[in-house]
């Protein structure tokens, strides 16, 4: 078991001005593993829109924050999320150039983050504020998932063994490390606005299954739209578990256990993942190092 | 870019052309769920709290090199202070209103006092001179933190490079490396031996861990050569470097060709304003006019007015501080906005400015 007491804490969060060159990225950047590639590729579809929604929501929450330190953390979080959105969008452009038009699925993602969870003008002030807290609770739940995924990708030796594209691995691990680095911010902001157990867990009950459902339809979409795959290619559960056994995708049982921990009354994100490991990766990441110049 | 509330869901991805059923369900669910769950406002029920800043007293002051003093700061009533890890710093709020960051250079296990070391820089912004002149034993000072912008990940093999006063965050890292039994080396560079702060503590560390601490003064060994310093790194080692800008730049340039595997340096938030001229801002909603001095950014001035002003990188690349300019000539200094965004009046207030004496009307 990891010891949080032995970890760096109180980190100053700062976005890193990373850049990635996708010119040489093959369609199946985990060689010979189109399904595992596309399960991970769903990230590039969900994140730009989702993380910009995080940014808008947290910007709206700034005036409600009365703690200077938390405000600084939230500002660092916003900047990191803005850069994550940009970095994944670069991959989308590349997919499009290789003949995979992500448009139809992107319109679904846009609908979720702009219509279902978007601005609702005309709410009376107390409802507007409660709606904001509700969205922060959803983000805190999603951030638990992204911290789990970040921790997974930092440790996913299976991707190295399979010869995954090094630039894509650096994008995923840089992003994963920053997710681990800032994993407490959304939770701490939620506790600042509503310390209750009910809203936090209720939001996870909704965010978790919706995320899984969006992920499945995203993988189905990408495999059907991939010009390099035979027509009517579909992801299968058996294919997923086989890839997970090889360490190319997260183990579903570990994911379920991690989600379960979010419902513990004494939960805090610092108990998940390792700040030390995230910091160590950011020291080796070619993109993060280049951004420090 | 909110969708209108009556926007219909897009078409299903598969099967017959019709609205996507899952998205239609999600829309109805969200509308009903939010109508129920936003009836009460938890923020109103639990007013948000904030932690007060720390008020500390200078309990000891000692010279640790030419122009360098080390200060011990403790709570007046002797209560334990918030814990910290190597690489952490404090924000010192000086009596003049200046805020300066200083790395903690004491022992993290000492819970009742912090220690910082400050070099007097007469040509600097005045903060270090104020520390030297006013923070004598018994003086009170307000601090925020500790925060960590230079976290130590305690990799198995570590090379610690310090230039001059940059040894302050490095010294606690060396102690932690020794405590954990890591393979570590520390190199401290400076102009002369007499200018190197905390030399006695490094000598004591060297006595306990022979061969791990190296001191090199320019007047004995010539100016440091980053490639040579890094060449001594154990293969794959993580390098932690803190020192003056030229040392950091040289280490970064030499890093790729070295045997080292990771590079960590302190991450500074806002670079100083270069070649700025004073100008002013006019806020549309309130009509307030704010003046921006030559050495401050528009963002600093807006944050002083409203602490909830959004910003993040403070270097002009993340785009979080984007503001719409209604009138006035903008001097763009960011790396992000497209020509179309600039033409539409967008401005990143963390770095961009206006010509001397100009007034920018902001949509705030």
UniProtKB/TrEMBL annotation, chain A:
Keyword Hydrolase: yes
Pfam families: Metal_hydrol (PF10118)
Domain of life assignment: Bacteria
InterPro entries assigned: UCP07580
Record protein name field: Metal-dependent hydrolase
Top-level taxonomy: Bacteria, Bacillati, Actinomycetota, Actinomycetes, Kitasatosporales
Keywords: Hydrolase
Gene Ontology molecular function: any one: hydrolase activity
UniProtKB/TrEMBL annotation, chain B:
InterPro entries: 2Fe-2S_ferredoxin-like_sf, 2Fe-2S_ferredoxin-type, 2Fe2S_fd_BS, Beta-grasp_dom_sf, FAD-bd_FR_type, FNR_nucleotide-bd, MRET, OxRdtase_FAD/NAD-bd
Cofactor list: FAD
GO molecular function, one term: metal ion binding
Domain FAD-binding FR-type stretches: 51-153
Record-annotated 2Fe-2S ferredoxin-type domain positions: 277-364
Keyword terms: 2Fe-2S, Flavoprotein, Iron, Iron-sulfur, Metal-binding, Oxidoreductase
PANTHER family (alphabetical): CARNITINE MONOOXYGENASE REDUCTASE SUBUNIT (PTHR47354:SF1), NADH OXIDOREDUCTASE HCR (PTHR47354)
Protein name: Oxidoreductase
Record organism: Streptomyces chumphonensis
Lineage, top ranks: Bacteria, Bacillati, Actinomycetota, Actinomycetes, Kitasatosporales
């Amino acid at each position: 078991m990891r010891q949080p007491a032995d970890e760096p804490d109180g980190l100053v969060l700062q976005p890193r001005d990373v850049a990635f060159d996708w010119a040489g990225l093959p369609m199946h950047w985990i060689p010979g593993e189109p399904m595992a590639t596309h399960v991970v590729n769903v990230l590039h579809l969900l994140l730009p829109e989702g993380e910009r929604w995080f940014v808008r929501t947290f910007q709206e929450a700034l005036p409600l924050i009365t703690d200077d330190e938390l405000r600084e953390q939230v500002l660092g979080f916003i900047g990191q999320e803005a850069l994550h959105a940009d970095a994944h969008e670069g991959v989308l452009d590349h997919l499009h150039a290789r003949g995979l038009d992500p448009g139809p699925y992107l319109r679904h993602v846009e609908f979720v983050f702009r219509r279902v969870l978007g601005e609702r003008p005309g709410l009376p002030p107390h409802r507007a504020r409660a709606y904001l807290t509700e969205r922060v609770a959803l983000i805190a739940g999603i951030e638990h998932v992204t911290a789990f995924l970040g921790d997974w990708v930092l440790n996913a030796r299976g991707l190295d063994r399979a010869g995954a594209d090094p630039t894509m691995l650096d994008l995923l691990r840089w992003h994963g490390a920053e997710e681990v680095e800032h994993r407490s911010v959304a939770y701490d902001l939620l506790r600042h606005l509503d310390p209750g157990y009910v809203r936090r867990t209720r939001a996870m009950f909704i965010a978790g299954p919706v995320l899984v459902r969006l992920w499945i339809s995203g993988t189905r979409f990408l495999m059907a739209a991939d010009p390099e795959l035979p027509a009517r290619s579909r992801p299968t559960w058996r294919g997923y578990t086989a890839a997970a056994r090889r360490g190319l995708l997260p183990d579903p049982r570990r994911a379920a256990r991690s989600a379960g921990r979010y419902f513990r009354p004494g939960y805090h994100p610092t108990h998940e993942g390792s700040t030390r490991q995230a910091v160590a990766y950011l020291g080796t990441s070619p993109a993060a190092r280049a951004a420090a110049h | 870019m909110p969708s209108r509330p009556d926007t219909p869901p897009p078409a299903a991805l598969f099967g017959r052309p019709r609205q996507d059923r899952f998205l239609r369900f999600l829309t109805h669910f969200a509308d009903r769920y939010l109508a129920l769950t936003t009836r009460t406002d938890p923020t109103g029920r639990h007013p948000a709290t904030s932690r007060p800043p720390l008020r500390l007293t200078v309990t000891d002051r000692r010279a640790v090199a030419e122009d360098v003093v080390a200060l011990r700061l403790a709570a007046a009533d002797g209560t334990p202070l918030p814990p910290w890890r190597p690489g952490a710093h404090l924000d010192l709020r000086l009596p003049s209103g200046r805020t300066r960051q200083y790395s903690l250079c004491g022992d993290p296990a000492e819970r009742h006092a912090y220690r910082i070391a400050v070099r007097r820089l007469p040509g600097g912004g005045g903060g270090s001179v104020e520390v030297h002149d006013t923070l004598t034993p018994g003086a009170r000072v307000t601090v925020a933190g500790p925060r960590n912008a230079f976290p130590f990940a305690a990799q198995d093999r570590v090379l610690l490079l310090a230039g001059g006063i940059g040894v302050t965050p490095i010294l606690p890292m060396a102690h932690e490396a020794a405590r954990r039994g890591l393979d570590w080396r520390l190199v401290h560079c400076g102009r002369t031996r007499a200018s190197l702060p905390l030399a006695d503590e490094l000598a004591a560390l060297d006595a306990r861990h022979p061969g791990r601490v190296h001191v090199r003064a320019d007047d004995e060994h010539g100016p440091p050569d980053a490639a040579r310093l890094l060449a001594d790194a154990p293969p794959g080692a993580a390098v932690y470097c803190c020192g003056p800008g030229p040392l950091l730049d040289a280490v970064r340039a030499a890093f790729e060709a070295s045997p080292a595997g990771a590079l960590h340096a302190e991450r500074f938030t806002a670079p100083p304003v270069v070649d700025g001229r004073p100008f002013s801002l006019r806020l549309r909603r309130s009509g307030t006019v704010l003046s921006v001095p030559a050495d401050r950014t528009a963002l600093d001035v807006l944050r002083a007015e409203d602490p909830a002003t959004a910003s993040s990188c403070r270097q002009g690349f993340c785009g979080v501080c984007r503001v719409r300019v209604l009138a006035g000539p903008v001097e763009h200094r960011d790396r992000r906005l497209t020509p179309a965004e600039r033409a539409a009046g967008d401005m990143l207030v963390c770095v961009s400015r206006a010509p001397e004496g100009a007034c920018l009307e902001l949509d705030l």
